[in-house]
Design a protein that fits this description.
about 120 residues, mainly alpha, 2 domains, three-stranded antiparallel sheet, 6 helices, 3 strands, about 10% strand
Amino acid sequence: MRHKYNVSEAEYEVLDMLWKCGGEIKQTELLKEFELAGKGWKRQTLNTLISRLEEKEVVERENRIVKSLLTREKFYNLQMQENIDLMYGGKLSSFFAAFTAQEGISREEAEEILRILEQSRK
């Protein structure tokens, strides 16, 4: 099974920078942003990371412009759903049961979760 939304830390840094830059930026400008952030990446390093993200269908590159195909929120949702599918057979209830068994939740969190569930029923 291919885990499309499982990205490396460096790939995530590219996505994060893209989102911080509005989701679309020239590749040369993106490299400059990383230089300003203290990353010593070479052009080829960035190119490789972008290529990997293109293969995962998370970004696209056209005319030297790199564009995120997903918002941060959509990416997180897809990544979480992929993990729930893999680890819990796609059952959110199984994930929730496992999570709360290990960590527990406060009364306030439980009330907030119940509120969210009630809203999602409507």
